[in-house]
Specification:
The complex is a heterodimer.
Chain A: E1 5-16, E2 53-54, H1 55-67, E3 75-76, E4 79-82, E5 92-95, E6 105-110, E7 116-128, E8 132-134, E9 141-145, E10 152-158, H2 165-181, E11 194-204, E12 214-219, H3 222-241, E13 249-254, E14 259-265, E15 275-276, E16 283-284, H4 287-295, H5 301-312, H6 316-322, H7 326-337, H8 342-359, H9 371-382, H10 388-400, H11 405-412, H12 421-433, H13 435-442, H14 448-459, H15 466-476
Parallel strand pairs in A: 12-13
Antiparallel strand pairs in A: 1-10, 1-11, 3-16, 4-5, 4-15, 6-7, 7-10, 8-9, 11-12, 13-14
Helix pairs in contact in A: 1-4, 2-3, 5-6, 7-8, 7-9, 9-10, 12-14, 12-15, 14-15
Chain B: H1 6-15, H2 22-43, E1 63-64, H3 74-78, E2 84-85, E3 88-92
Antiparallel strand pairs in B: 2-3
The chains are: A alpha+beta, B mainly alpha.
Chain lengths: ~475, ~100
């Protein structure tokens, strides 16, 4: 990217709320049903059918508002957003326009380099999802499936506070993490439970005003947010540097070609003629209602993160990764509660465990090793029964089969050779076998030491601790 | 008296997905002019300090408990639709990707 340009990004995230029934009807929202079996007369917009607001959707929106320290509106209003499309049978979407349920708040995002940035949240409002149009199944027609119509959505809108694609991706990730913590969304990106739109413009570095922006619609992964924005930022810079003008329009990201494409220019289609929905009354939230929502909220990731740093002296990037997902955080906490060293526990969870999960395409919620087993393994590392190499061998055993750590160590003979006669004998033998190398070391070529440590490790079949071997060698050679 | 120009009429027709012949257009223009005339009278009322009204009835929205109920058959609804197949409601081919 040219260093003369600064990108300005704001995002809108649609979060499907994890209620049992729809926002304005009692139809189930379960994913993956036959077309239209979850579409009742309200979802189908039958004449005379009236919407009734789902209390749980309201509670979930309030929880999100409290979590980002936002004002919760005492009174909010549902509006009709008018447009014609066959997967929207009423001819309007029920949404909130002037008086949303959640007002201004803020969110901390964590960047790869360990820095933290505050991102302003403009608002969050409740609305209903549309159905799905199937364009390629019928030759003469478009098929309409209204199972998704009326699924509760919380649309979260940020301020244009981000200055790079990476920050926008971090923000989307943070919102994902937060709604999963609050248990208000399952966070399943592949099933469309969260979708991200990004507004992006570029301006000369130092300018206060914003350039003309484009909107990239419906991005459904963290990686694609970053890639789509990087492409779009470059494209806008190219247009401007060639003397052209950025056109305000909606674009979509094509992941296979890694580029954004123009969808439609925003002129007429943007006139939604919002007005208050006469079928719904203003929603007033009492302080008791808000207090009840607050009382069922868990410790927030931000609070947990600060506690992990202060209680366990973890580095911030480590604490960020441990609090990204509720199941990894609780796994970490129970491992530490069983007496395992916090730093080692963090290293193992984010290292070996993460790698094994990735290999088997599993989540932290599905770790086949109990926190008690991992705690035992780490304790055997702490008391030097195991070297780190041997610990990995034991880990593979407990990952694939049952059995206690101590049983496996005994059964497989995996105990580390410590500073014992056995280890001394081994080191002495290597010294005797390598007179040339010893002479080199004694004349100052200390690099050869690594070779000898390797020979001892090999002879011990990996059961020695390389650091101990190195110390022992130095002592026995008087260097 | 407000006068609806052709451009505004055209825009409203596009937004409401209607097409009208010249005669009906003129009728609509007269009706809209009259309606907007009424609104202009209301515009003269001083609403300084008055909270905008979201609903004509002064009541609050009741809430429904989050319970999923299946109390219908898809076939009953589909029998009312002009065209269905494989459980989908069918509409004329939509080309414009929304």
């Amino acid at each position: 990217m040219s260093r003369h340009w600064e990108p300005v990004v704001g995002i809108e995230v649609h979060v499907q709320l994890a209620t049992r029934s729809k926002i304005f009807s009692s139809t189930s929202v379960e994913f993956g049903a036959e077309p239209n079996v979850r579409a009742n007369l309200i979802d189908l917009a039958m004449p005379g059918a009236l919407p009734v607001l789902n209390e749980e959707a309201v509670t979930m929106a309030v929880k999100f508002g409290l979590a980002i320290d936002a004002e919760i509106a005492e009174k909010c209003v549902f509006d009709r957003k008018n447009y014609f499309y066959p997967d929207l049978p009423k001819g309007y979407q029920i949404s909130q326009f002037e008086l949303p349920i959640v007002g201004r708040g803020q969110l901390s995002i964590f960047l790869e380099d360990g820095s933290v940035r505050q991102i302003g949240i403009t608002r969050a409002h409740l609305e209903e999802d549309a159905g799905k149009s199937v364009h390629d199944r019928f030759s003469e027609s478009t098929g309409i499936d209204l199972n998704r119509a009326g699924t509760p959505l919380l649309e979260i809108v940020t301020e244009p506070d981000m200055r790079s694609a990476a920050e926008a991706a971090a923000c989307f990730r943070q919102i994902h993490s937060l709604v999963r913590w609050l248990e208000i969304c399952d966070g399943n990106l592949a099933e469309g439970s969260m979708r991200c739109d990004a507004n992006v413009s570029v301006r000369p570095v130092g300018d206060e005003s914003f350039g003309e922006r484009t909107e990239i619609k419906n991005i459904n992964s963290f990686r694609f947010v970053e890639r789509a924005l990087n492409y779009e930022i470059e494209r806008q810079i190219d247009v401007l540097e060639a003397g052209g003008e950025v056109v305000r329009e909606t674009r979509q990201y094509d992941a296979t070609r890694d580029m954004t494409l123009s969808m439609r220019s925003k002129e007429l289609s943007d006139d939604y003629r919002y007005f208050p929905d006469p079928d719904l009354l203003p929603l007033r939230l009492s302080s008791e209602f808000v207090a009840r929502a607050r009382s069922t909220m868990p410790e927030l990731p931000q609070q947990k993160l600060e506690r992990f740093i202060s209680d366990y002296s973890l580095a911030q990037p480590v604490a960020v990764r441990l609090t990204r997902d509720p199941s990894i955080a609780s796994y970490f906490e129970s491992t530490v509660a069983l007496g395992a060293d916090p730093q080692l526990s963090a290293n193992w969870l984010l290292g070996e465990v993460a790698a094994a999960l990735k290999r088997e395409e599993k989540d932290y919620a599905d770790i086949p090793v109990s926190s008690a087993q991992l705690a035992d393994l780490i304790k055997r590392l702490q008391d030097k029964t195991l070297s780190s190499t041997l610990a990995k061998v034991v880990f593979e055993h407990i990952w694939t089969s049952d059995g206690s750590v101590d049983e496996i160590i005994e059964r497989q003979g995996l105990r580390q050779l410590n500073d014992t006669d056995e280890l001394r004998t081994l080191v002495q033998r290597i010294i005797t076998d390598h007179p040339d190398q010893i002479e080199q070391i004694q004349s100052g070529a200390t690099k050869v030491m690594g070779y000898l440590v390797g020979q001892v490790m090999k002879a011990s079949q990996g059961k020695a601790d390389p650091r101990q071997v190195s110390d022992l060698l130095k002592r026995m050679l008087n260097i | 008296m407000h006068d609806m120009d052709d451009e505004t009429i055209e825009r409203l027709l596009t937004l409401s997905q209607l097409s009208l012949d010249i005669e009906d257009r003129e009728k609509i223009r007269r009706d809209l002019d009259a309606i907007i005339g009424f609104i202009e009278i209301m515009d003269q009322v001083n609403t300084e300090g008055v909270e905008p009204l979201a609903h004509a009835v002064d009541l609050d929205q009741p809430l429904r408990k989050d319970r999923a109920v299946i109390d219908f058959e898809r076939d009953d609804f589909q029998s009312l639709a002009p065209k269905t197949a494989d459980g989908f409601y069918l509409v004329p081919k939509v080309l414009d990707q929304h």
